[in-house]
Amino acid sequence: MEKRLKERLEELAENPVQWGCRLAPFTSFGIGGPADALVQVESGEELSNLLEFFMDNSIAWRFIGRGSNLLVADSGFSGVVLLFGKTLSQIELLSDPEAVDIRVRVGAGCSLAKLLNWCTENSYSGLEFAAGIPGSLGGAVVMNAGAWGGEMADILSSIKVLSLHSGVEHLARKKLDFRYRLWGNQGSGERKRIVLSADICLKPGNKEAIQEECREYLTQRKLKQPKVTKNGGSFFKNPEGDSAGRLIEASGLKGTRRGGAMVSPVHANFLVNTGNATANDVCKLMDIVIRQVKKDSGVQLFPEVHFL
Ligand SMILES: Cc1cc2nc3c(=O)[nH]c(=O)nc-3n(C[C@H](O)[C@H](O)[C@H](O)COP(=O)(O)OP(=O)(O)OC[C@H]3O[C@@H](n4cnc5c(N)ncnc54)[C@H](O)[C@@H]3O)c2cc1C
Predict the structure, then answer these.
(1) pLDDT in the model for residue 225
(2) What pLDDT score was predicted for residue 189?
(3) Pocket residue to mutate for ligand 1, from 28, 39, 142, most atoms within 8 A of Cβ
(4) Which atom, in ligand 1's list, is nearest to the CA of 145?
(5) Count of domains observed in the chain
(6) Ligand 1 center to 233 CA (angstroms)
(7) Are residues 68 and 103 part of one domain?
(8) Domain-embedded: residue 135
(9) Is 107 in the pocket of ligand 1 (CB under 6 A)?
């Protein structure tokens, strides 16, 4: 990036710009080379100014949450990576605390774990399915994250988004095209919408019952998911009526390795970084899995993980 553009970026960013920042520590895989720059954004206005600056100067950018569904290339990202700082992580109760329908506004940078804790402390039910799902609220909206029959689409009432094309928009749930692990109308290019906050709808519940349900989900995760913590969760989407893990296991791929990447022997839909995996290792392993499953069962697997 030219010196004058670097200087302008530093002026526009509220937080110090992290030049040549390695992205591996910002992902749950622990993989990924450097971005030209990384900026922790603190407000919608700052984000809007940055996006305009990037467009005017043809600078590539990508937005990330907590990197729990992200595989970053070994060569990193030639451009600016944006993520939310602390200010866009707040939780605000919008309704009467005793109301039948509890409405809560959550900043997109808030972690699901923090939000679930808050819900439990206040005895609000509806988000229990998210126990153990890492990541930010914004990422959970974009991925329509879910488990145990629940998903984000069930509890959202509206979202506040920002795009270069339309500025700030408030979109009601009925305008949002949610599918399995996908928000279908997020847009792309200038129309790409970044989630700033979401309003969710919960119900008053019983604190002990909420805690018990969360505990049960966490226990199930401990039993079924790999102990190797460096991974991106389920790597492939489940094909309709089947499970990617079952198909991969049926192809005898559990424990298959490429470099430092391995198909988890515990749960076949987890491709794990055993310590020193590169993104190249993971991609090679992904290709092996896709080819073998296609050959054995005729089913085409598609990654759930996003790539940067
Ligand atoms: C151990 C483990 C278990 C998991 N279990 C589950 C599970 O049970 N169910 C499930 O659904 N997922 C699961 N995941 C995957 C992951 O946690 C979710 O998809 C999560 O919602 C991703 O959020 P994130 O903030 O980490 O997003 P990231 O991985 O940072 O980003 C994912 C995508 O969302 C985009 N994005 C992020 N934030 C925003 C924003 N504010 N506005 C616009 N775009 C944005 C990014 O550009 C990227 O394309 C698991 C992951 C791990 C590591």
Answers:
(1) 87
(2) 87
(3) 142
(4) 11
(5) 3
(6) 9
(7) no
(8) yes
(9) no
Same domain (yes/no): 94, 189: yes
| Coil, strand or helix at 73 | coil
- Interaxial angle between packed helices 44-56 and 3-12, expressed in degrees from 0 to 180 and rounded to the nearest 10: 160
Which of 66, 128, 136, 181 is catalytic? The answer is 181
Do residue 196 and residue 255 come from a single domain?
no
Confidence of residue 202 (pLDDT cuts 50, 70, 90): very high
Same-domain check for residues 109 and 52 = no
243 labelled catalytic: no
* Residue 213 is among the residues annotated as catalytic for this protein: no
User: What angle do helix axes 207-224 and 112-121 make, rounded to 10 degrees?
Assistant: 150
pTM of the entire structure?
0.94
Atom 33 of ligand 1: nearest residue by CA position:
139
Q: Is the dihedral of CA 272, 69, 150, 204 positive or negative?
A: positive
Domain membership of residue 232 (yes or no) is: no
- In this prediction, residue 226 carries a pLDDT of 87
- Which residue, chain included where needed, has tokens 């002026």? 11
Instruction: Provide the pLDDT for residue 267.
Output: 95
Q: Please report which confidence band the pLDDT of residue 97 belongs to, taking 50, 70 and 90 as the band edges.
A: confident
304 classed as catalytic: yes
What tokens does 119 get?
């819900």
Looking at the chain, the whole-number percentage of residues with pLDDT higher than 70 is: 100
Q: Do residues 296 and 271 lie in contact, with contact meaning Cβ atoms separated by under 8 Å?
A: no
Residue with tokens 């018990």: 212
Q: Which of 66, 84, 102 is the last residue of a domain?
A: 84
Domain that residue 137 falls in? 88-224
On whether residue 238 sits in a domain, the answer given is no
Q: Is the CB of 195 under 6 A from ligand 1?
A: yes
Q: Do 108 and 166 reside in the same domain of the chain? A: yes
CA 170 to ligand 1 center in whole angstroms: 22
Dump pLDDT digits (tens) for 240-261.
999 999 999 999 999 999 999 9
| Ligand 1 near 231 CB (within 6 A) | yes
